Amino acid sequence: MRPAALDWSVENCTIARAMEILGERWTVVVLREVFNGVRRFDDMRVRTGIPRQVLTNRLSMLVERGVLRREPYREPGSRPRHEYRLTGMGLDLWPVLVAVLGWGDRYLADPEGPPLTVTHRDCGAEVRAALRCAEGHDVTEPQDVVPVPGPGARRRG
Amino acid sequence: MRPAALDWSVENCTIARAMEILGERWTVVVLREVFNGVRRFDDMRVRTGIPRQVLTNRLSMLVERGVLRREPYREPGSRPRHEYRLTGMGLDLWPVLVAVLGWGDRYLADPEGPPLTVTHRDCGAEVRAALRCAEGHDVTEPQDVVPVPGPGARRRG
DNA sequence: TTGCTGAGTCTGTCAATCAGACCTAGCCTG
DNA sequence: CAGGCTAGGTCTGATTGACAGACTCAGCAA
Fold first, then answer.
1. I want to staple A108 with a disulfide (CB 3.0 to 4.6 A). Which of A146, B17, B23, B40 is the partner?
2. Higher-confidence residue: A79 or B32?
3. What span, in angstroms and rounded, lies between the C-alpha atoms of B73 and A25?
4. Regarding the domain delimited by A10-144, which CATH topology (the fold level of the hierarchy) does it fall under?
């Protein structure tokens, strides 16, 4: 059976566009750091082992794309510096990070368990990414999700 | 304030491990194709424009890592071939793909809207990735999620 | 004046990406 | 059974990116 997807163009696919930002080796690791509250160049570098040049590139790319912003700050007794903080666009990446974390925890963790969990501030219970439809139904089986062309779909030329 | 994360090692971080698989330029795009039902080498290549060599590499990497499997099939009147299908581990990437799609749709879509939506098979309503805690509370604000060291956490040496 | 520190830049090496040409197994047609 | 077609690749060479290690630079402090 010929997949229906073959009739539709992928030139404006938003997954591809998102992966142009997120799809470089270290980008998501940098975002993990920022979500964890690590906001300064050298802290990130020491923790992650990312080469300086690459970290510089990734951070400026993320600033340029609007995911992070540079925020000046000044600690008493040192000169003014800046740190990297999430913008609204960046904060909205939480579900992506949590989804990746959940998958990694399930298939790639060491036997003793994952090194990090995310919890709900109010009740302390573990937070996970779940799929839900606009009608409020939970979607647990992958087979229950059907991709369909959206408003911006274009036929292939 | 010094971030607590600095005390913890990241060597066994499951996000980093997941991104070793997902974090290459084309991997997620390949997965998007497979989730959309496009399972054959040439269909993918024509649709995505991925260079042959790279597509070969990505597919065999994904097979090797257990995300895809090669399935032989035979269409009447042609020789036996094989196609790529998701394993259980691969199917569990749905929440990741949907989360990326949701973010991309929100910030990177063309004005006329996203080219693809995912819907619930039963009711046809749009499916989105949401965060929920184990107690069943919905988590809508990024600030309501708190990262804490998990069972596999190691102090930094 | 010299030194320290956070946040870089510069340089050279090595690996990955990419485009484009070439190859190959099995089927089909003449 | 020779030749062609096609899906699914290899091979080759040019460009880009990752990486390590050394160097730079601004401002504070001794």
1. B17
2. B32
3. 34
4. Arc Repressor Mutant, subunit A (1.10.10)
